[in-house]
Amino acid sequence: MTPIFVAIFLLGLSSQMATAANFTLVYEWPDKWECECPSEANSTKVLSIESSNPGYIDPQFMAVYGSRIFIILEKHVGIPVSLVSLPTSSASPAPPKLTPFPSWDMHGNDGDCDKIESSRGLEVDSVGKLWVLDNGSSKCNYSKIWSIDLANNDQTKLIHRFPFYGHLNDLVLDETPNGTFAYITRWFEQNIVVFSLERNQSWTVDTPGIMFFSIAISPMNQEPRQLYLGGWNSKGLYSISVAALRNGTLTANPKLIGNWTTSKSYRMLMDKHGTLFSAFWYKNYVKSWNTSQPFLERRFIKVGRHQYKMSFSLNI
Ligand SMILES: *[C@@H]1O[C@H](CO)[C@@H](O)[C@H](O)[C@H]1NC(C)=O
Ligand SMILES: *[C@@H]1O[C@H](CO)[C@@H](O)[C@H](O)[C@H]1NC(C)=O
Ligand SMILES: *[C@@H]1O[C@H](CO)[C@@H](O)[C@H](O)[C@H]1NC(C)=O
Ligand SMILES: *[C@@H]1O[C@H](CO)[C@@H](O)[C@H](O)[C@H]1NC(C)=O
Ligand SMILES: *[C@@H]1O[C@H](CO)[C@@H](O)[C@H](O)[C@H]1NC(C)=O
Ligand SMILES: *[C@@H]1O[C@H](CO)[C@@H](O)[C@H](O)[C@H]1NC(C)=O
Ligand SMILES: *[C@@H]1O[C@H](CO)[C@@H](O)[C@H](O)[C@H]1NC(C)=O
Ligand SMILES: *[C@@H]1O[C@H](CO)[C@@H](O)[C@H](O)[C@H]1NC(C)=O
Ligand SMILES: CC(=O)N[C@H]1CO[C@H](CO)[C@@H](O)[C@@H]1O
Questions:
Q1: Closest protein CA for atom 13 of ligand 6
Q2: Residue 62 and residue 32: Cα distance in Å, rounded?
Q3: Beta-carbon count within 10 A of 77 CB
Q4: Is ligand 6 within 6 A of the CB of residue 244?
Q5: Can you tell me whether residue 272 is helix, strand or coil?
Q6: pLDDT by residue (tens digit) across 250-309?
Q7: Which interval of the chain is the signal sequence (predicted)?
Q8: Cβ(22) – ligand 1 distance below 6 Å
Q9: Is the CB of 275 under 6 A from ligand 8?
């Protein structure tokens, strides 16, 4: 059995940071993660998280708000919840246990349509609401979006049910004076999904011939905002102007910016200065590109050991 190495780093960012950065290792879990789950009622489930092959503990997405980190775990056999939280710091040297978020009771198995079945992308908005995509399950036949009010006792609402199910990957938020939109990638689909919060409506925007996986959006103060998309089946990096998406277009023509030299993009982020960061499948480093300049990849950071997948998040 290969021990899994999972670590969380905090990085101090400054406006000059794109080339040099120092990391602080916050926690390291050399072999297993433990769940702060109720021990009595459903203890068999709880035990299984500790006794399952630790290789199956598979962190996927991350967000930070205040003194809490939120992590989405792939729901492999024996993993009872897909969304957990932990503190950004701890007085104890031991890595903290993972707490089901927002609560153990909000998590369900496939077919618990009013509970969190299988969370995917997550994003914190400007008023402290955590948006969580939920892939759903074939038993309910729809995917959904949750909103958890981090500044307000973690009040949890199911805000949308999609007319489709599955293949959800990641989302970004676009908060405009005319309303809030979410743009969502679905792997294996030649489209992206747009959700309008005010209208409680979602629709698919076709991207003929191109499938996307990773997604990022340019800073709020730089209109017209651009959506950046990494190919699902290619190394291509594409952009789409969000003006047309807000306007309800049903077909977009993504512009190819360039090809990453490394591998397919796994996760992308953009900071408020317009620097785009990408992690890659099977690579232990992140590359960056200053989007104010022609496409040029720079090696940004490298994390010690081999990584199958790497999640990262900005605290802004
Ligand atoms: C990183 O740490 C080194 C040594 O502590 C320090 O000299 C350097 O200025 C730091 N760099 C940044 C970007 O903070
Ligand atoms: C699930 O939804 C799809 C698309 O709306 C539909 O074609 C399919 O029959 C549904 N399946 C079930 C089991 O309800
Ligand atoms: C939004 O629409 C979905 C159906 O797509 C519905 O289930 C949900 O209750 C609606 N939410 C609100 C807040 O109206
Ligand atoms: C999401 O749904 C698809 C089926 O459409 C499934 O293949 C995939 O494994 C699911 N992913 C998660 C994380 O539940
Ligand atoms: C908001 O809507 C108005 C009128 O439809 C439009 O002129 C304006 O450009 C929109 N603003 C944004 C940020 O989309
Ligand atoms: C949005 O739609 C309106 C009305 O259909 C149109 O006048 C406007 O040019 C469109 N804007 C963009 C950016 O596509
Ligand atoms: C990117 O790669 C594709 C093939 O995968 C190629 O057709 C295209 O010309 C490349 N584009 C650039 C800008 O390098
Ligand atoms: C990005 O490029 C622009 C234009 O060349 C420059 O003004 C800016 O300082 C660069 N940003 C960073 C973080 O290096
Ligand atoms: C969260 C969860 O799985 N709760 C279950 C605990 O066990 C009881 C009895 O088997 C179930 O009814 C709950 O749904």
A1: 243
A2: 18
A3: 8
A4: yes
A5: coil
A6: 999 999 999 999 899 999 999 889 999 998 888 877 899 999 999 999 987 766 555 555
A7: 1-20
A8: yes
A9: yes
Ligand 8 close to Cβ of residue 290 (< 6 A): yes
User: CA quadruple 243, 157, 114, 172: dihedral positive or negative?
Assistant: positive
Atom of ligand 9 nearest to the CA of 45: 3
Nearest alpha-carbon partner for 184 in 209, 160, 202: 202
pTM of the predicted protein model: 0.86
Query: If DSSP codes are grouped into helix, strand and coil, which group holds residue 302?
Result: strand
Closest listed ligand to the CA of 199: 3
Task: Give the pairing type, strands 155-161 and 285-290.
Answer: unpaired
For ligand 3, whether the C-beta of 144 sits within 6 Å is no
Interstrand relation of 191-196 and 201-206 (parallel, antiparallel or unpaired): antiparallel
| Helical (H) or strand (E) element with 45 | helix 43-51
178 CA → ligand 5 middle, Å? 6
Nearest to 171 by CA among 76, 274, 281, 63: 63
* Cα distance between the two ends of the chain: 38
Instruction: Encode pLDDT of 113-164 as tens digits.
Output: 999 999 999 999 999 999 999 999 999 999 999 999 999 999 999 999 999 9
Ligand nearest to the CA of 244: 6
Q: What is the mean pLDDT of residues 188-204?
A: 97
Query: What's the 277 CA to ligand 3 centre distance in angstroms?
Result: 34
